[in-house]
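thread: overnight batch results

M.L. [08:02]
morning all. the overnight job finished for the chain we discussed friday. pasting input first so we're all looking at the same thing
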Amino acid sequence: MVVLPEMTKIPLELLDHRHQMISPRVKHDILNAKFNKVLIADGLEHGFFKINDFGEIDILCTRQSLPSIKGFVFEVVTVRYINENITTIGKKIFDWCTNKLRSSTDEYIQKYKAIGTGFISTRNTYPSLYEPHSNADIRFIRECQSLDNGWEFALISGNNIPAGIQIKAITSNEINQIIKPLLSGKYTHVLTFLCGNNGIHTYINCMDEIRRMSLSGEITLEQKDFLEARICSPEHFGIRQYDVDDYSEYINFWYEGRAKTETNDLIKAVGFEVAGYKYNESGILIPN
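M.L. [08:03]
and the structure it wrote out:
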């Protein structure tokens, strides 16, 4: 046991909200301290939050389902992880979604950056690449002076199809949400973030369904191998599931109105210049 001076103050975000002695109210407060500003930044980046003329946040996703909002958030999270860790997490995700047989060199991968096809930063910085209704939430791009817009997509190895990643934040219905869209060619690669309603990660649920479908003759062995290679979870690339689950739990609180967002205290804005926030090298708005 560590004895602290009587007046020592510990930031809430340093506490373990999973500890059995933590009350539900304090648990909410800890998650709020960790993720409130992050959610604001992610919402502004994806566009389901907007800053009005009074420097306050307007919520534009009131009719969106919780899985849809989480999907939006984890798109931004994934791009942030990739671009801030391009030679580690980013490289692994790049090699996976481009079907590379050998690992990319650091020199090669550093030519690329990930973008969200529906992000506000993509619309502002790469307007010709802005595709909010694309079947790929995330793509990799690099400079190409021979093209009119100056950028080119990373391609899937062996063909001219742009590599793309679809982000899923579902908790059920993996066959219709992930497996069938991959078989039909709607998606090329799916990164699924959350545990299912049965307490098992949706990646594992997908693998179980794929094995069942293979044994029953619903899919061929070739299709089984294809599906198993095209579905991954965050931990495949070094993203901790605990971090994902914590953020997901906070979004639950926020969505249900339990995590209060003090917009007037947190944000004062003129256009996209937000006090207390900055754009990182990836073009993503993050807290200072």
